[in-house]
Amino acid sequence: MKAKWHIGRVTDIEHISKTKLSFSIKLKEEQQFEFEAGQFVTMDLPLGEKRRQRWRSYSIANIPNVENKLSFSIGYLENGLASAYFFEQMSIGDEIKFKGPEGTFVLPANLNRPIIMIATGTGVVPFISMLRKIKQDKIPFESIHLIYGSRLVEDILYHSELEEWKEEFGNFQFDIVLSRATNWNGTKGYVHDTYLNSDIHDEEQVLYLLCGWTSMIDEAMLNLFPKVNDPTKQIKYELYG
Ligand SMILES: Cc1cc2nc3c(=O)[nH]c(=O)nc-3n(C[C@H](O)[C@H](O)[C@H](O)COP(=O)(O)OP(=O)(O)OC[C@H]3O[C@@H](n4cnc5c(N)ncnc54)[C@H](O)[C@@H]3O)c2cc1C
Fold this sequence. Notes:
Blueprint: E1 5-17, E2 20-27, E3 40-44, H1 51-54, E4 55-59, E5 69-75, H2 81-89, E6 95-102, E7 114-120, H3 125-136, E8 143-150, H4 159-168, E9 172-178, E10 187-188, H5 191-196, E11 207-212, H6 214-224, H7 231-234, E12 235-239
Parallel strand pairs: 7-8, 7-11, 8-9, 9-10, 11-12
Antiparallel strand pairs: 1-2, 1-6, 2-5, 3-4, 3-6
Bound molecules: flavin-adenine dinucleotide.
């Protein structure tokens, strides 16, 4: 089926740190844009002449809403073309063309088992969408543990929302693991030690959801494969590149 293209107008941009920003677009069309929590869209950004070179995918951070807004968080990559656009050029009112929604990395139907979400950097975005969906629809879940790695304190995305979640849901916990922070009393290092040392009651049932770049996913897969009963059913991931 031919992909349908949509146009959204940038409504707000929040520079969170030197390497992290969040922004929203509002769709031009009236019809509510439907998608599942965890999905992404592919944007056609102003990055050059060749169409394929301009395409980049981004996870949606929010859930479908009557305002028809989509929100995103972007991590800056050195020498990245899209990174340069988002951090140096994008302005309120810009039009962004995109297709989607795409992807099968969505909120699992069965939340009746322990879920461990492992993310690095903007890999936390699809999990935020999933958590927002659970909260909005009051979906019961057994337990969710988010392990979220980043570099610096100022790079942490959605921190206060995660704190609120923890307050509200006794069966939700999160760990932030920072690899380069000196001003941080929490866990330092990489996500891997945290999930490897987690106390998981039901290793046969646990579902691991991973999202981020190849280096993190590859290492996590190597670590988790021998730990679970059925890797194809118990480990799902979204690879950013
Ligand atoms: C399904 C999906 C969802 C995604 N969601 C998000 C999201 O929510 N937020 C987000 O910020 N990004 C997300 N991405 C990544 C995004 O699509 C772009 O790849 C990213 O923004 C970099 O684009 P760029 O044009 O800035 O970099 P490019 O111009 O494509 O590359 C810049 C430089 O980085 C190098 N590079 C490529 N891969 C890596 C890597 N893994 N680590 C270090 N350097 C590398 C390249 O060699 C190049 O030199 C997602 C990707 C996928 C596939």
